[in-house]
Amino acid sequence: MLGLLRQRHTLQSPQSAHILIDGQAYLSFCSNDYLGLANHPRLIAALQQSAAQYGVGSGAAHLVSGHTQLHQQLEGALAQFVNLPAALLFSTGYMANLGIVQALVSKGDTVFADKLNHASLNDAMLLSRATVKRYRHRDTVQLARLLEQTGSGRKLIVTDAVFSMDGDIAPLPDLLTLCEQHDAWLLVDDAHGFGVLGEQGRGSLSHFRIASSRIIYMATLGKAAGVFGAFVAAEQVVIDTLINHARSYIYTTASPPALAGAVLESLQLIVEGDEQRAHLQLLIAQLRNGLRGLPWALLPSDTAIQPLLIGENQAAANLAVALRERGIWLSAIRPPTVPAGTARLRITLSAAHSAADVQRLLETLDELAR
Questions:
Q1: Catalytic residue from among 192, 207, 279, 353
Q2: Of residues 31, 91, 128, 164, which has the active-site annotation?
Q3: Which of 150, 196, 210, 366 is 20 to 30 A removed from 48 (C-alpha atoms)?
Q4: What is the 3-state secondary structure (H, E, C) of the chain?
Q5: 97 and 239, same structural domain?
Q6: How many domains does the chain have?
Q7: Mean of the pLDDT values across residues 106-123?
Q8: Sign of CA dihedral 212, 218, 223, 227
Q9: Could you tell me the pLDDT band of residue 293, with boundaries at 50, 70 and 90?
Q10: 307 lies in the same domain as 250
Q11: Domain range for 346
Q12: CB-based contacts of 253: which residues, under 8 Å, 6+ apart?
């Protein structure tokens, strides 16, 4: 037995720190709802109001007749929110990454990628037909050597901002410096930083206080934002290129306009969310302090993603089952999502959690360790 079989479970409640699955109540630590907005009454009201005005389905692709006033308004608001000239909505982050990379590079060009990037970036660079050069996780010295060894063609560095399975943050200022030195672009996937990091949750670029016309910024709207979808923000010429060449944008139905209305309200909640982000930081510190001394290694992370390294696949799966038997829902992450031998529990914290929730998890893990 490899301990790799994946199975689905049916959620019977709204997304929250406390959920109902298959008729059982659980305390959940495996949602990306970092600010606890997925079931926020203001988002529900905004969705209902937008659906009443614009209906349910968009009916067509953006370039046909599916691009509504709400979509247009949201793109402007998102560009302003992340301090970039223009933005473009995509149905998912996966589709956004596929569209960006395939539209900007092809044969004769080179993509430079962190080895721990998300699967969507990996698939995008392979489908682009560009040459692919992968560098060790966060290793800018190796990346610099690879750039120096590359001659003609466009150069595109692609990276997660917050790495989804490790929780650490890419050295974005150093990557941008390398882009400037080697005339390259930088694609930043901020799926897990948007809404959480930076001033008023404006994301990883704000967190590092960096800005450049070389940056192509992608973030998702179904995690901290609590809704669904994704967007790309960049210079207007980049956005125009994507509108005309990104196949995953051109050849798909536009997302429901009501979702755009909900995201517009979510942006307001994110701006107002300093208290939630401060609470989240306190929970992160509480968890990390409480896990010291347990037999499992806690990977270095200052974000809401806190991976507890177990190692062997079946051991991680067994620990997840033991937690579930005690009313705590936590997923075991195993290969191929993570490298062989690094199976883990991916603990994700939310502002919807209380200190008592975190303490319950700590006490349960301590009991299982003994």
A1: 192
A2: 164
A3: 196
A4: CCCCCCCCCCECCCCCCEEEECCEEEEECCCCCCCCCCCCHHHHHHHHHHHHHHCCCCCCEHHHHHCCHHHHHHHHHHHHHCCCCEEEEECCHHHHHHHHHHHHCCCCCEEEEECCCCHHHHHHHHHCCCEEEEECCCCHHHHHHHHHCCCCCCEEEEEECECCCCCCECCHHHHHHHHHHHCCEEEEECCCCCCCCCHHHCCHHHHHCCCCCCEEEEEECCCCCCCCCEEEEECHHHHHHHHHHCHHHHCCECCCHHHHHHHHHHHHHHHCCHHHHHHHHHHHHHHHHHCCCCCCEECCCCCCEEEEEEECHHHHHHHHHHHHHCCEECCEECCCCCCCCCEEEEEECCCCCCHHHHHHHHHHHHHHHC
A5: yes
A6: 2
A7: 97
A8: positive
A9: confident
A10: no
A11: 18-35+274-369
A12: 57, 58, 59, 60, 61, 66, 91
- The first and second tokens of residue 224, run together, are 């901290």
Question: What are the phi and psi torsion angles at 62 (to 5°)?
Answer: -60, -40
Q: What is the CATH number of the domain that holds 346?
A: 3.90.1150.10
Could you tell me the two tokens for 171? 């050295």
Per residue in 45-76, pLDDT (tens digit) is: 999 999 999 999 999 999 999 999 999 999 99
266 shares its domain with 217: yes
Collect all residues with Cβ–Cβ distance below 8 Å to 270 and sequence separation of at least 6. Answer: 35, 37, 195, 200, 201, 224, 225
Question: Do 222 and 172 belong together in one domain?
Answer: yes
The one catalytic residue among 71, 223, 279, 353:
223
**Looking at the domain assignment, is residue 240 inside a domain?**
yes
Residues 6+ apart with CB under 8 A from 173: 208, 210
Categorize the per-residue pLDDT at 3 as very low, low, confident or very high, splitting at 50, 70 and 90: low
Helix-helix angle 41-54:257-271, to 10 degrees: 150
CATH code of the domain in which 187 resides: 3.40.640.10
223 is catalytic: yes
Model pTM above 0.90: yes
Give the whole-angstrom CA distance, residue 140 versus residue 137.
9
Torsion of CA 5, 6, 7, 8, to 10 degrees: 180
